[in-house]
Amino acid sequence: MPSVLRVTDQTLGMATADLVLGLVLVLVGLRFGARAMPRSPMLGIAIPSAMESDEAWLAGHEAAAAPVVQGGALGMLGALGAVAASAGWGGWIACGVFAAVLGHVFGGILLCDKAAKATVPATD
Predict the structure, then answer these.
(1) How many CA atoms lie within 13 A of 23 on its CB side?
(2) Which of 3, 67, 81, 114 counts the highest number of beta carbons within 10 A?
(3) Of 1, 26, 3, 30, nearest to 84 (Cα)?
(4) Element (H, E) at 41
(5) How many other CB atoms are there within 10 angstroms of residue 99's CB atom?
(6) What gap in Å lies between CA 57 and CA 80, rounded to an integer?
(7) Distance (Å, whole) CA 64 – CA 93
(8) pLDDT tops 70 at residue 18
């Protein structure tokens, strides 16, 4: 008798969170890359170096676009992998994917900071 794919509620919930977070990150990251995210303390990467000027904001977000989009795509693919995995491993896969997505986002923040600081004139 073939085995039936069993997905626990916990795995399904975590995979759904990975999927939704991934989709949001891809959409936001694409706006970063298009330099279409207006400067705001509520949306985007509102770190002090990026908030210095509009040019610092745009340069920082453009630098952060690739890892943010990659993290979002990883989240969406990982959500599918977690659901497709055996019932015992799905939750672990979803947690690992979430950690990897956060790593991409933090990498994007570091790149944003570096690019934003490069646009700010040095003070003597």
Answers:
(1) 7
(2) 67
(3) 3
(4) none
(5) 9
(6) 34
(7) 25
(8) yes
72-112, pLDDT tens digit by residue?
A: 999 999 888 888 886 678 888 888 899 999 999 999 999 99
Alpha carbon separation from 75 to 31, 51, 59, 71, 94 (Å, rounded): 18, 28, 25, 6, 9
Contact 12, 95 (CB under 8 A): no
Residue type, 124: D
Q: Where in the chain are the domains?
A: 9-119
SS3 (DSSP) at 35: coil
DSSP string, 82-98: HHHS-TTTHHHHHHHHH
- From the number of C-beta atoms within 10 Å of its C-beta (0-12, 13-18, 19+), residue 40 rates as exposed
Most confident of 30-44, 56-70, 79-93: 56-70
Identity of the residue numbered 118: A
